[in-house]
Amino acid sequence: DLDQPIIDDVEQEVEEWAKKQQQQIDQYERFAEYRRRYVGDISHELKTPIFNIQGYLHTLLEGGYHDEKISMSFLKKAAKNVERLQTIVEDLSAISRLESGELILDTEPFDIKALATEVFEELEMKSKEAKIELGYKSGADTGFMVMADRESIRQVLVNLVTNSLKYGDVGGSTRIGFYDMESYILCEVADNGIGIPEKHLPHVFDRFYRVDKSRSRQKGGSGLGLAIVKHIMEAHQQTINVRSSPGLGSTFGITLAKA
Ligand code: ADP
């Protein structure tokens, strides 16, 4: 259109360009904020065990080492905190591998019940210590063939069953069940432990989120177990869900592709 001044088009172009720039800045700022929080969270998590270790060593060096009983007890406590640091660092590197997409899924068909049995065997000692029985839900006589990265799904089951032992009560039990849902297989890990209040449920998969900080720490939790589980399920383009009633228990369900 020859009558139309060209300036209108230019103005619109400039406006659109400015809008795009702003969107990019916003996105960058969101990312920068995410990174700041991430680094802040991590250093906060590392501080507690480091301060503890410092405290125990300081007391020993100040003369506590003369007393054999104190020495033994403080060294044990220091060692426990070193273990915690190790768990946090290992879990963080697992998360960073998952977030960077470095984990390449080695998908293969396998029997989910056979894997659950292996996980139960691996955690037998812990279950005995916690005095919580591991077993299958009624009806879970046969497993199902699923298509997934077996090693990652083992990690998922290990984390879920370990949690059921950490947040269960003496004399309690953990049950795994399998269900054929037509288009996928549902695998559930159910416990009759302390449960999770409803308002916390949407957050339990966030990194470092804990309902009860002291219980998690006392049980050696890094606060990253469920974040790792969620990442692994997302990498599989599958889902994880949780239902829970405080005092009655929790059930975590993962979906798996049929083989
Ligand atoms: P943590 O290392 O603290 O166990 P997770 O990421 O594995 O970290 O779990 C996050 C939080 O969710 C836990 O601190 C706990 O409060 C809650 N939680 C997880 N699993 C269970 C469970 N089976 N029963 C009750 N609470 C649970």
Automatic annotation (TrEMBL):
This is histidine kinase. GO terms for molecular function: phosphoprotein phosphatase activity; phosphorelay sensor kinase activity. GO terms for cellular component: plasma membrane. It catalyses: ATP + protein L-histidine = ADP + protein N-phospho-L-histidine. Its EC number is 2.7.13.3. GO terms for biological process: cellular response to phosphate starvation. Keywords: Kinase, Membrane, Phosphoprotein, Transferase, Transmembrane, Transmembrane helix, Two-component regulatory system. The keyword ATP-binding does not apply. It is an enzyme of class 2 (transferase). Residues 41-259 form the Histidine kinase domain.
